[in-house]
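Internal tracking record. Fields below are filled automatically when a chain is submitted to the structure queue. Please do not edit lines marked as system-generated. If the sequence contains nonstandard residues, flag them in the REMARKS field before resubmitting.
Queue: standard
Priority: normal
Entity type: single polypeptide chain
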Amino acid sequence: MEGAGNQLDGLTLDSYPGENVTDFTTEAQRLIKIMQGDYALPVNTGFKLIQKVIKTSCEYFNRNMYTLLDEVKTLEHEYKLSDPKTLTKDSKYAKFGPLEVIAILQAAHGALI
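SYSTEM-GENERATED OUTPUT FOLLOWS
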């Protein structure tokens, strides 16, 4: 689990030719699913994922990701100092949890291809 977390932290969009967000998020999803076997994901997982993709060469994509980043950061900030497991019980988690963020990133990238 710790190894998957370290790999996720080291994951960069630069490693994927053509800024391929879909391939990037597919790998991130694989790592997150491994990490879910632990007690709880780190609270800022969604925020970290979005930050890794907001510097693409497509300004339109980046602006949309900044909007998403605001939503995710607001949600995660509420649970910053509490038990990270409680974040999953928030009604907004179904819309802005890490796996949902991945789905949004993939859909946004797919719409631009």
